[in-house]
Structures are given as structure tokens and as C-alpha cells.
Write a structure and sequence with these properties.
6-stranded antiparallel sheet, 4-stranded antiparallel sheet, elongated, 10 strands, Alpha-Beta Plaits, 282 residues, alpha+beta
């Protein structure tokens, strides 16, 4: 039987497993394809799984169901989410992978114990907007004067490099301001260009669970006092970005040499909890 895996946590956090050595159903919780979700005991851990038909393809709805199961389990204990689409092809594959990754799992659980992730999306004006408009007109004249194409091309590259530095400075200033305001334990920042001359910052903050309400209050105050940018808050979530960081380097090495890295993975999907936040929770 194949098992679809959602996340992994410590066995002691689930009283249902204290007297059982076989998978125990989690009442009223269903996952991908509407299948019953089980607590699967493996070593000192509980793997949250459901039965899986290998012939079934994953779609967007499956991503929503995957995220919902993880969010529900996160309300009860510290867990490490698995990447969407992780499948173990049988009981032995699941147990072997947990045994091989036991130290890594325990270390990562200890690092994110009692913590949660808050996700900020901030839309600010692109400081290079006027320069972009000027460049559009320059591009038009460029094709009209081919004799100056080489010189114009180099100037074009220099302007692009200058704009990139200006955007980085702008994004860095905003993320530093958010860090100073919210004072997270850790953070992950991603910046990209959006439509209509805007810059979008995706900021993940790692905080203590007990500080969620204070964080939300701080966001409400900050959002009301910054009319020049649009801010959106979501969370609390399981610490997706930060578990990914903890396991990223090890997994990259494990793909080349699983045995030497001390990681054993199932046949077709990663067993270590590398995370890719799906659209359902973005």
C-alpha cells in the first residue's frame, strides 16, 4: 500500500499512539482525494499520512487538501511539513526513511518548536518608474539610428544595472524597516517586480507562537500608518520557509549520494521535509 505523507511530528504529541503500534485514524480529518488521514507510528515519530492510489494525479484541489491537513496538525503540535506530492511506496519505505533521517527530523523539530510563521506581502512604488518610461522612448529611437546601436546598447545595460541597484536599495530599506518594527526571530525576504510600476516584497517572519496577537496588532498599526504602500498579512502558518532552509543543503547533497549523506528517500519523492508553500496558503 502506498502512503501519501503530509508532515511528521513527535509521537508523544499524539496521545492516540500511546497504546498502538499500527496506524490510527484521525477522526473527522480527510486529506488528498478525500481519503482518511492516519497517524503512522515510526520510531519516535508520528507521520501523518493517508492511503494513496499511484494512478491518481495531483491537482490544485489536492494542494488545498494537503495544506489543510498540515494546518490542522499544526494546531496540536510542532510538525515538519513534507513537500506537496510526497509518497512512500509501502510500509517499509516509510519506516526506513524515518529511521535514516531520525536525527535530522529531531534536530529540526527542536529548532522550530513553539514557533510559527507570519507572511507579509508589501506592494510599493518602483523607484525607477520614470526611468523606465524614458527607456521606452530610447528603445524606439535605438532602432531608428542603427549606426549608434552599439553605444546605445551599452548605455542600456548600464541603465538596467543602475535600476537594479536602486530597486535592491529600496527593497532592502523596506525589509529593514519591517524587521525593526516586528523584530522576528528569523526572516526570509523575496523581491520581484509587479505590474504597473510596483515592487512586491514577500517577507516570511519566524516568531514565537505566544507573540502572534502582538504581531497582528503591530501590523494593524503599521498598515494604517503607511498609506504609500499596500500591505497584506497571513498566518500563523507552520514554519515552511524556515524548515526548507534547515534541510535545503542536506537534501541537495542527498540527491547525489543518499547513502553518504545519511538520508534514505522513497522511490519517487523526497522524504526529507523540504517545503514548497502551495497556493492554498500563500
Amino acid at each position: 500500500m502506498a502512503w501519501y505523507a503530509y508532515c511528521i511530528g513527535e509521537k508523544q504529541a499524539f496521545p492516540e499512539l500511546l497504546r498502538h503500534r499500527k496506524p490510527v485514524p484521525l477522526e473527522f480529518l480527510h486529506g488528498v482525494s478525500g481519503n482518511q488521514v492516519f497517524l503512522y507510528p515510526a520510531s519516535e515519530f508520528a507521520v501523518i499520512v493517508s492511503e494513496h492510489n499511484p494512478e491518481e494525479a495531483f491537482d490544485q484541489k489536492a494542494g488545498v487538501e494537503h495544506a489543510r491537513v498540515i494546518a490542522d496538525c499544526f494546531q496540536h503540535s510542532t510538525i515538519l511539513p513534507f513537500r506537496f506530492g510526497t509518497v512512500f511506496h509501502g510500509d517499509e519505505a516509510l519506516r526506513k526513511s524515518v529511521r535514516s533521517n531520525q536525527k535530522q527530523f529531531q534536530s529540526n523539530i527542536d529548532k522550530v518548536r513553539g514557533k510559527t510563521e507570519m507572511h507579509l506581502k508589501i506592494l510599493v512604488d518602483d523607484c525607477c518608474g520614470p526611468a523606465i518610461e524614458r527607456q521606452k522612448h530610447a528603445d524606439t529611437s535605438w532602432h531608428m539610428h542603427t549606426d549608434a546601436a552599439g553605444r546605445d546598447y551599452l548605455a542600456h545595460l548600464r541603465e538596467n544595472a543602475t535600476r537594479a541597484r536602486e530597486r535592491q536599495t529600496r527593497a532592502r530599506a523596506v525589509s529593514f524597516q519591517m524587521h525593526r518594527l516586528f523584530q522576528p526571530l528569523d526572516e526570509e525576504v523575496c523581491c520581484r517586480l509587479a505590474e504597473k510600476g510596483k515592487i512586491l516584497l514577500d517577507i516570511a517572519h519566524l516568531i514565537d507562537r505566544k507573540c502572534v496577537e502582538r504581531y497582528q496588532n503591530k501590523f494593524a498599526t503599521t498598515n494604517a500608518g503607511t498609506p504609500n504602500c499596500h500591505m497584506q498579512l497571513s498566518g500563523p502558518w507552520p514554519p515552511y520557509h524556515f524548515v526548507h532552509r534547515l534541510t535545503r543543503a542536506t537534501h541537495a547533497h542527498a540527491q547525489q549520494a543518499p547513502e553518504s549523506a545519511g538520508l534514505q528517500e522513497p522511490d519517487t519523492a523526497p522524504a526529507s521535509p523540504l517545503l514548497e508553500p502551495v497556493a492554498a496558503i500563500a
